[in-house]
Write a structure and sequence with these properties.
alpha+beta; Aspartate Aminotransferase, domain 1; 6 strands; 6-stranded antiparallel β-sheet; single chain; globular
Length: 114
């Protein structure tokens, strides 16, 4: 079963210390410590997440997955819809994106997060 947009949004929001806001008028952005880890396109239904450099090419070879506009050079991928990849892989990638961003935060800030 494919992850719905609502499930994607709920999963992102459920990450410890995650915040949500609207950026660029049409994107719901999920952040940890003011740094983005996931994006949901309110108009398009597309989603963007950060991935490891060594997974970037593998993932962007899949149908419905491409380098994220403006963020691809930082190893962000865009999915036409959350259903573009299997649920378990998408959940793993969201959590990994969260941890990739969280671990780059200053230590003092990381200590204040749940």
């Amino acid at each position: 079963m494919a992850m719905t947009a609502e499930q994607f949004r709920a999963f992102c929001a459920a990450q410890p210390g995650a915040t949500t806001d609207i950026k660029w008028q049409t994107n719901e952005v999920y952040s940890i410590g003011a740094k983005m880890f996931a994006i949901y396109g309110l108009n398009s239904g597309s989603v963007c997440i950060k991935v490891e450099p060594d997974r970037f090419l593998e993932l962007t070879d899949r149908p419905g997955v491409r380098p994220a506009p403006y963020l691809g050079r930082y190893y962000w991928i865009a999915l036409d819809t959350p259903a573009a990849i299997p649920d378990d892989l998408l959940a793993e990638l969201i959590q990994h994106s969260y941890f990739l961003v969280r671990r780059k935060l200053p230590a003092a800030l990381r200590r204040t997060l749940p």
